[in-house]
Design goal:
Order of helices and strands of chain A: HHHHHHHHH
CATH architecture of chain A: Orthogonal Bundle
Number of strands of chain A: 0
CATH superfamily of the largest domain in chain B: P-loop containing nucleotide triphosphate hydrolases
Number of helices of chain A: 9
Largest sheet of chain A: none
Largest interface: A-B, 26 and 28 residues
Structural class of chain A: mainly alpha
Oligomer: heterodimer
CATH superfamily of chain A: MetI-like
Number of domains of chain A: 1
Distance between the termini of chain B: 45 Å
CATH architecture of the largest domain in chain B: 3-Layer(aba) Sandwich
Radius of gyration of chain A: 21 Å
Radius of gyration of chain B: 26 Å
Number of domains of chain B: 2
Number of helices of chain B: 15
Distance between the termini of chain A: 55 Å
CATH topology of the largest domain in chain B: Rossmann fold
Strand content of chain A: under 5%
Shape of chain B: globular
Structural class of chain B: alpha/beta
Number of strands of chain B: 16
């Protein structure tokens, strides 16, 4: 049923769509992380802002991507921007929530000690709070990445979609091999990202596993 | 400001000048408030702030490094108002130790200790040397501990690291908030003794907060007793506070057993040691027997070649002739040294159900005897001497 000659013939297409898939995801998670970090920074410690901001992000997260695309296309057309807006808006809730949870989990005695030893505000944030929030932030990045890898498929409807395009072409040309290739690669990407980011998260927080001697 | 070129043995006076902290929305004494606190701690002394919870002792401490700003009044270090100093600068020059220690879980022990040197911009080599030196100072092997994470240490070890970290920048002033409160009593006792030994060399000016009057008496050169509402109830040496409580509150707070507590202030070395009648294995029994019969103390103490006590021989067990043997020696008494506090000495005698303790030197050689009667008589004399 798998026709290797089809794969061979479409290798350039598959490779370029694979790259597009990764690029769409990386850009979405990167921009999402930047926005979430800024948002978390400004609403932290301001109780009145936390509700509205996380509420808005939660709403964006809930709106089906398909509906969002349909809504955006008249405004931003069939563009890379449209695709990214849809993708980014899904990462904001996950990332902001995890950054806030990570910062909230920093032990208060460590914060008091940091203040008492003469850390400035940014020094404390950079050298104490962020490293200690990292396990939860990394977990957020991992979930957001795996989620986005799946969502990228949907943007095939507006001409992007990475591996989604490969599958779509497979459907259109009744080419089972292409459908299968798109499917297998998407699943493989998701698994690789999950495992890879899990490993990275542990690698950058060696202290979180240090117990006993 | 002039400071000696060597960074060791620096200390500064710390003075509270009508320092007051009120919290808004409360007219009555709120927990943590401080009311018109004035006192001065001379350079190189330990001043213990002690009182029930909510008496403002921690608030007072935190006003020194400006974790809390006073509502009115000033805090002066070597005559300079702390409010006039750049706050991070000020804090880097003040050591801080808290009950929960507050080590940074993501940093190794070595990095934790080197926190203030890092903030002061020291070179990595110098930081490493300094942190190794301090770990050794607090009794932790630097090679073993420097690369571990805080989670891999016991409570007592973490507390030592906390002290090392506070000392890293060689601050003239240290603030310690219940530093030994989270460890078990045996470890606490050891950490207290080690810290006093360290302080004998370091001679820092230390403000020490505790709710435990025994710890205050043991650790303090000066004790400030505070009562709820943030009022200073009494400020003086532990001796003064035990002998002459300034108010009913202080008297109640130091407790009904303050006579017993005063025994913590004196050590075995303060007593006149009684001579022991001694003999060595193999000695002829006749001579010691004659001496023991003429002595009110009814026991002969057998010692070895290095004058180390072996055990007692009761008066009636000493034979009238022949050689003395090790086998004749039976019970032993607790071994004390001149540094043992009288309170601990008395406790050891009571525990062992004996009247007499044997005082030995650092090599275990006999120095003399101490009796429970003598300890209680010493306490009575002390009480009369100070006018109560």
């Amino acid at each position: 049923m798998i026709r290797w000659d089809v794969i061979e013939g479409n290798l350039p297409l598959i490779a370029s769509k694979l790259l597009e898939h990764l690029a769409l995801t990386a850009v979405a998670v990167g921009i999402g992380l930047a926005i979430s970090a800024l948002a978390a920074y400004f609403i932290r410690g301001r109780k009145r802002l936390v509700g509205p901001v996380t509420g808005t992000f939660s709403l964006l997260y809930t709106i089906p991507s398909l509906a969002l695309l349909a809504f955006l296309v008249p405004v931003t057309h069939l563009s890379f921007l449209t695709a990214e807006i849809a993708l980014v808006s899904c990462t904001l809730f996950i990332l902001t929530r995890n950054i806030l949870a990570g910062l909230a989990a920093v032990p208060t005695d460590a914060l008091e000690a940091a203040d008492a030893m003469g850390y400035g505000r940014f020094g404390r944030l950079w050298h104490v709070e962020l490293p200690l929030a990292l396990p939860l932030i990394m977990a957020g990045i991992r979930i957001a990445t795996v989620t986005t890898l799946g969502l990228v498929m949907v943007t095939a409807l507006i001409g992007f979609g990475g591996l989604g395009q490969v599958m779509l072409r497979g459907y259109n040309f009744r080419n089972d091999t292409l459908v299968l290739v798109g499917f297998v690669l998407t699943v493989a990407l998701g698994l690789a990202a999950d495992l890879g980011l899990g490993w990275l998260g542990r690698a950058v927080t060696p202290w979180s596993r240090a117990r006993g001697t | 400001m002039t400071s000696p070129p060597s960074d060791a043995h620096r200390a500064a006076t710390v003075a509270f000048d009508h320092a007051t902290k009120r919290y808004p929305g409360t007219n009555t004494a709120r927990s943590g408030a401080v009311q018109d606190l004035s006192l001065e701690v001379p350079a190189g002394k330990i001043c213990v702030l002690v009182g029930p919870s909510g008496c403002g002792k921690t608030t007072s401490l935190k006003m020194v490094n400006r974790l809390i700003e006073p509502t009115s009044g000033r805090i002066l270090i070597d005559g300079q108002d702390v409010a006039s100093r750049e706050v991070t600068d000020l804090r880097r020059s003040i050591g801080y130790v808290i009950q929960q220690v507050g080590l940074f879980p993501h940093q190794t022990i070595g990095e934790n200790v080197a926190t203030v040197p890092r903030l002061l911009g020291w070179e990595p080599d110098r930081r490493r040397t300094r942190s190794d030196e301090l770990l050794t100072l607090v009794g932790l092997d630097a090679a073993t501990y420097r690369d571990r994470y805080p989670a891999q240490l016991s409570g007592g070890e973490r507390q030592r690291v906390g002290v090392a970290r506070a000392l890293a920048g060689d601050p003239p002033v240290m603030l310690m908030d219940e530093p030994f409160g989270a460890v078990d009593p045996i470890v606490r006792e050891r950490l207290q003794n080690e810290f006093l030994r360290l302080q004998a060399d370091l001679a820092k000016t230390i403000l020490f907060v505790t709710h435990d009057i025994d710890e205050a008496i043991k650790m303090g050169d000066l004790v400030a007793v505070m009562e709820v509402g943030g009022k200073l109830a009494q400020f003086g040496t532990p001796e003064e506070i035990l002998a002459n409580p300034a108010s009913d509150f202080v008297a109640r707070f130091v407790g009904v057993d303050r006579g017993l507590k005063r025994l913590s202030l004196s050590r075995v070395g303060d007593l006149d040691l009684l001579p022991a009648i001694t003999a060595r294995p193999g000695d002829d029994a006749a001579e010691p027997r004659r001496r023991i019969m003429a002595n009110p103390l009814e026991y002969l103490l057998m010692i070895d070649e290095a004058n180390r006590p072996i055990g007692w021989i009761g008066q009636r067990q000493v034979p009238s002739g022949g050689a003395l043997s090790v086998l004749m020696a039976s019970a032993m008494s607790p071994l004390l040294d001149r540094r043992t506090t009288l309170k601990d000495a008395l406790a050891m005698l009571i525990d062992a159900e004996v009247q007499v303790g044997i005082v030995v030197d650092d090599h275990g050689a006999l120095e003399g005897l101490v009796t429970a009667d003598e300890i209680t008589a010493f306490r009575r004399r002390g009480a009369e001497g100070s006018g109560t």
